[in-house]
Specification:
The chain has a single domain, classed as Alpha-Beta Plaits. The protein is about 30% helix and about 25% strand. A hairpin with a 2-residue loop joins strand 2 and strand 3.
Length: about 100
């Protein structure tokens, strides 16, 4: 079973230079679903590393929202959302423990 979970990450960065840096960092971790909103499938270590990287670039005047999503919530992402949302669902396990 995977220890990775979906996270919805939104940000508001007031300086254009920092904005580009924050977006570039997040592009390395997930997929942009709107201008300043990303979805990322992360384990605890990757989430901590992402926070560390973002804290190096962001200032107190900037805002960051990281929302963890359980598998059930991720599966309920509306199908009328822009783009194919089917990969929000966790893949089925390919093996069984006997």
């Amino acid at each position: 079973m995977s220890d990775k979970h979906w996270h919805l990450i939104a940000y508001d960065v007031r300086d254009p230079k920092r904005l580009r840096k924050v977006a570039k960092i997040l592009e390395g971790y997930g997929t942009r679903i709107q201008y300043s909103i990303f979805r990322c499938r992360l384990d605890r270590e990757a989430l901590e590393k992402l926070h560390w990287e973002l804290n190096r670039e962001m200032e107190k005047e900037d805002d960051l929202l990281v929302m963890p999503m359980c598998a059930g919530c991720a599966a309920k992402v509306p199908r009328h959302s822009t783009g194919d949302q089917s990969d929000w669902v966790d893949p089925a396990s390919t093996f069984r423990i006997a």
